[in-house]
């Protein structure tokens, strides 16, 4: 049963089932005919994203409390088994997001429908992801490079895997129907790229240029991976020795390669093995907390310039066990503002069909994703 839960596509003699899991909630789609698997999975991802956007977050209670809106959204997003309207801008014009006022009116009037009687103008447009007649007093567009570093470092300190998953996030506050062109200084490093439907594929295929008419507001323009990176910004060196029923632990953290920006929000977390009865851990920087479920969290923050943060202490093993046989894996978190560790650089952003007075802003941030250090 656990094996089936991990499979995105399940085939039976009469049906195909597609599934994704978001925030502990499983989304299922079923078909009796063959179809591109990615189409079903992408539709489920759209449904999860739309519900998260409408409800603020995803959990079982929110879906139950707003089941009318969830039903109305599904009714508009799929028609007779075919995906229909999946753009957030159009859906927001058709179905009002839940709020306290709408819930009170539905109780007083007895009308629980949130569907508008007027069809949004963008449904007949060649760019259905953008509303018509968008107007702003100040025209602004912001482009963010948001990256997560996934890394695995083995017990010998050797970097086994290191890659970046990144997103180009745009906040577009432009009047009219703008046409944007975004280019990178080094697009050849990108792999597994995935685009928003607004991106024209031919300019990217021929010149690695993103040409698009943007949606209004915030959206994810593209995602990408940068593989086989050679180094990480920080190092974690754990040492564990045990004998006579006692285990001694020492962990050092420091900067391996200075990215040129401050590394902050550093947190080291690990699960104490089940055979540990008690632990006495201290650090020369930051705070150490051991929860009742035996999860140890070392909050470092920023690395000081005058000393390398270190954690040390002793752990008592259960009776009858002389040495530690199960070693913990350390999960690392950090954040670096103002730099993309993948090395990706934005070259320029050109805008057409927009007023002369506008502001363009660019930012970058790198966080730790699945960053593991094994002991």
UniProtKB/TrEMBL annotation:
Q: List the Pfam families.
A: Adap_comp_sub
Respond yes or no to whether keyword Protein transport is given for this record.
yes
SUPFAM superfamilies in the record, alphabetically? Second domain of Mu2 adaptin subunit (ap50) of ap2 adaptor (SSF49447), SNARE-like (SSF64356)
Q: Subcellular localization, per the record?
A: Endomembrane system
Q: What is its main location?
A: membrane
MHD domain sequence ranges: 138-374
What family does the database annotate? Belongs to the adaptor complexes medium subunit family.
A GO BP entry: intracellular protein transport
Q: Which GO terms describe its cellular component?
A: clathrin adaptor complex; endomembrane system
**Domain of life assignment:** Eukaryota
Which keywords, in A-to-Z order, does the entry hold? Membrane, Protein transport, Transport
Look up and give the organism this protein is from: Citrus sinensis (Sweet orange)
Task: Specify the protein name.
Answer: MHD domain-containing protein
């Amino acid at each position: 049963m656990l094996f089936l839960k991990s499979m995105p596509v399940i085939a039976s003699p009469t049906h195909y089932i597609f599934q994704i899991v978001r925030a502990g909630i499983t989304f299922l789609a079923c078909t009796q005919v063959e179809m591109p698997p990615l189409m079903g999975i992408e539709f489920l991802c759209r449904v999860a994203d739309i519900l998260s956007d409408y409800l603020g977050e995803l959990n079982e209670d929110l879906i139950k409390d707003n089941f009318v809106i969830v039903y109305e959204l599904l009714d508009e997003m799929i028609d007779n088994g075919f995906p229909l309207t999946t753009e957030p801008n159009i859906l927001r014009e058709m179905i009002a997001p839940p709020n306290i006022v709408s819930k009170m009116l539905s109780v007083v009037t007895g009308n629980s429908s949130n569907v508008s009687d007027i069809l949004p103008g963008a449904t007949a447009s060649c760019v259905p992801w953008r509303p018509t007649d968008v107007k702003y007093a100040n025209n602004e567009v912001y482009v963010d490079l948001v990256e997560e570093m996934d890394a695995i470092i083995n017990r010998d300190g050797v970097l086994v895997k290191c890659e970046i998953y990144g997103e180009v996030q745009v906040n577009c506050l432009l009047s009219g129907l703008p046409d944007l062109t975004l280019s990178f200084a080094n697009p050849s490093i990108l792999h597994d790229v995935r685009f928003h439907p607004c991106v024209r594929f031919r300019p990217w295929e021929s010149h690695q240029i993103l040409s698009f008419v943007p949606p209004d507001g915030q959206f994810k323009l593209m995602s990408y991976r940068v593989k086989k990176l050679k180094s990480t910004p920080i190092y974690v060196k754990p040492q564990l020795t045990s004998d006579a029923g006692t285990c001694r632990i020492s962990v050092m953290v420091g900067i391996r390669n200075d990215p040129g920006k401050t590394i902050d929000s550093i947190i080291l977390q690990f699960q104490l093995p089940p055979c540990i009865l008690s632990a006495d851990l201290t650090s020369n920087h930051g705070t150490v907390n051991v929860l009742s479920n035996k999860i140890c969290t070392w909050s470092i923050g920023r690395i000081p310039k005058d000393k390398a943060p270190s954690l040390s202490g002793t752990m008592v093993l259960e009776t009858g066990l002389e040495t530690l046989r199960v070693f913990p894996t350390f999960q690392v978190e950090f954040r670096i503002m103002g730099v993309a560790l993948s090395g990706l650089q934005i070259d320029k952003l050109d805008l057409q069909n927009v007023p002369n007075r506008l502001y363009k802003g660019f930012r970058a941030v790198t966080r730790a994703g699945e960053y593991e250090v094994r002991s």
